[in-house]
Amino acid sequence: MQEVVSVKVMRESDEATIKNKIPSLELMQRAGEAVFKSYTWQGKTAIVCGGGNNAGDGYVLAALLGDRCRLFLLCDKFSPDGKICFDKCVKSGVQYSFIDESTTFDGFDTIVDCIFGTGFYGEVTGMAKWVIDKINQSNAYVISVDIPSGLNGDTGLGNSVISDMTVSIGTIKTGLVLNEAKDKIKKLVNCPIGIDITGERYYLLDKEDFLGVIPQRKNFSHKGTYGYTALWGGCEEYSGAVKLANMSLSSLKAGCGVNKLIVNESIAQAIAPYLLESTLFKMPHGFNKEKIDEALCGVKCLAIGMGWGKGEEHEKILSYILENYAINLVIDADALNTLSAMDLDILKRTKCSVCLTPHVKEFSRLAKIGTDAVSFKKASSFAEEYGVIVLLKGTATSVCNGSDIFFVQKGSQGMATAGSGDVLSGILCGLLGYMPMSIKTVALGAYIAGRAGEIAQSETNAVSMTSSDTVKNIGKAIGEIYGY
Is 70 exceeded by the pLDDT of residue 265? Predict the structure, then answer.
């Protein structure tokens, strides 16, 4: 579990450390040394520096590399500590030149990007844009110090250097995890240098953080031991037989004992041939209290909304479940759209333990905000206000319960295909059939889905893979965590 912080918290923590513990020049020295130790340096290295403290880290690195490197300066401007480190480089014989349109990185094996730090905001322009383009067009191995220059340190958006490795200094910033970060950073390494974090922090989870979450299976057990679950989705317009079957199978592969697929009776015949291990429950059109009670009898977890479409009585159905059932409830897709048209205070009164799984547009409808205003912080505030867990889908999935925020960065390009969200809902339903609703369990579901997608892509390719490929690899993803 790695800490993640905002740029503001990182800056304030840096300032507090300098004031109370470690001089700024010493921190710069530690940062440069950390970058030096993070890579096996071979051949010739170009170190490209801007005018701030990020450049100072590059000067420290240059002094350590000596005649194996050359400095390329974007401007004749230095921070106070950076000037001290630059003068040391020059005194030791490190060669440097100022960047102009004749600059080339031909012949360099490695390029180190020290142009901008995490405090950069806005669009890159002028010579900085030119040199970033040059770096991205080179054949060298690119290392960014703290953040790829041009990438927003909070949002992970922006035209930036594309790094083979980014060496984060101190603590990972949110911009190294969110949105475009995964396209700009092939490998992320964090190097603590003694800065104590003094503000709010979030957590990036990896497989070791889920050890012990899934309980050990006993021989003396049966299918009922691991929970009866139900998935409610599909409609005449979006029957999606194969997708619904995949969703149901993913629930079973996540470990529940029995899964029931609840569908409108008008599409049941089309779906039945695709179901092998799951059972099928035919639901009459509209609101039918007796049939709902029959369908949910003994169910520990229900996932609802996938391919549900629009129905005149959907609000009535969802309200009835929220008001009358003390179960784990995953609300996804069309059920989220149904919920967004309702009085959300029902979430404060519900007997259910609720997990919402929106993408950005769905969350904007729920929270009544524009898509540009959607963020993991907004999702966390929503979770706190309504007493739910929010899984906000994205390149990095954010899982919030109002007090903690977890990031899961698993997933692949090939998962941008129909049915991937349904598979995630199925996995969550399967896990929550035999485990209590918790932020860690929901984050585990996101991890399993993302890792299964990564494995699927490695076995096929990003263009050709489908959601069924992800389903096939759920077992491998779980096995990696638990050593099965």
Answer: yes
